[in-house]
Amino acid sequence: MAAISVTILPDASLETDAKVSSHLKMTVPASWIQKKRPMRKLLDAALKQWQLTDRSYALRRKDGTALDLDASLGTLEEGAKLVVGVAAAAPVAPPKPQTPAPPKPSKAYATLRSGARIPLCGLGTGGVPGLVGEQCVDIVSHALRSGVRLVDTASQYGNEREVGRALRKSGAPRGEVFLVTKVAPLEQGYAAATASVVRSLERLGVDSVDLVVVHWPGAWVPEQKDWGAAQWLGGGADSGPNVARRLRRETWRALEDARRNGLAREIGVSNYTVPHLEELMTYAREPPAVVQSECSLLFSNDDVRRWCAARGVHFQAYGPMGGAAEGGDRGAVGHAALQDVAARYPERTPAQVALRWLTGKGVSVLPKSCRHERVVSNACLDFDLAPADVARLDSISDGRPRYWDPANVDKVDIFNPFLDKARVQRELASAGYAAA
Ligand SMILES: NC(=O)c1ccc[n+]([C@@H]2O[C@H](COP(=O)([O-])OP(=O)(O)OC[C@H]3O[C@@H](n4cnc5c(N)ncnc54)[C@H](OP(=O)(O)O)[C@@H]3O)[C@@H](O)[C@H]2O)c1
């Protein structure tokens, strides 16, 4: 491989810079070509010759085409004419707009008696109005994709199929998601409750749920449509309270067996008052792992929470925003004392402060929202509340349930579709019982 001669001319832009006027005749040694030295070697040689070292320079052909400084010198032909000029400043890329990192749902857990872990921050799908149809699939899959790992549904909500579809659509690993469902009042009794769990699994499209709870202590049977107060309160084996007690007991036995048979990892109850829980303990072969009940800033449900705490039972809050009637901004979230406390946490919404108050007590929360941004922000609770703020929030509850008082469920279950409630209430009142 022979050496080649090239001419290097100064660009006009160099004259002002370094008073270069003469061109250079340079010989490119054969060894440079053989060893495929890059074009920049030539540029360096020219700059050295002209004593130019303090700026960026570029090499191009005389016709103006740019030369790749990393290309091999072997691509140059004998007698090539090159020009050295000041390199055009590389276009400065406009700074990329800083997209804030998406909020991250908390990964905080409580540990159940069995050692299983339950996420503290979840999503409710029932309520008034609940999440149903495609909206349910959309909201639940969005929450799961965003990292929410606790979802509450119920046979009664009529949305288990959609929750199951959302689970699959989201791609969230089944093992990471804590799925809760419930046995409805019409499904109380051993056979009906067992069938209820199996049907829930089919609708959800899963082999087992993480938790199944008795939806509420009331038990409905179609014959109740013919019952008046005498039947309800007659005291016989088939009176209202006794039928309800028998069905509760059978239902619990069905759930214990469902757990043993691997259909549910944990079992629990919902809307049970302390007397219902005490009754349960008289026949339970195993105590509930979880009690799900109303709990929010407005109604902190201290009796049931204390009962749970004393027995190692996990307490889960439904209606954590104050619920259907006083939910969100109309109630707990809009409460003046909460707004006041929340003003000290400018990075957080009042709703997050209300929920963090609950998770700070080890309570798992099931807020419901039909808005994408809220279902995620409601689960982003990795921050601390000052003890003085917790004490202030502790004082808001007035002890009045915002949903209903299940204490009277054996007298009149206000949700029972079979019951002529007006008639029973009238007869109960005339018999001297307070209306439910
Ligand atoms: N076991 C039971 O008997 C039982 C009974 C009731 C409920 N539950 C469970 O508990 C879940 C929650 O109960 P719930 O839906 O009745 O009441 P909730 O969650 O206390 O309140 C829901 C209300 O709060 C609003 N909200 C949600 N996030 C908000 C935020 N960040 N800021 C302001 N407002 C917000 C919602 O409005 P938007 O939708 O417009 O956001 C809705 O109006 C239910 O979905 C169900 O899974 C269980």
Automatic annotation (TrEMBL):
SUPFAM superfamilies: NAD(P)-linked oxidoreductase. It holds the Pfam family Aldo_ket_red. Residues 124-397 form the NADP-dependent oxidoreductase domain. InterPro entries: AKR, Aldo/ket_reductase_CS, NAD(P)_OxRdtase_dom_sf, NADP_OxRdtase_dom. PANTHER family: 2,5-DIKETO-D-GLUCONIC ACID REDUCTASE, ZGC:110366. This is Aldo-keto reductase. It comes from Aureococcus anophagefferens.
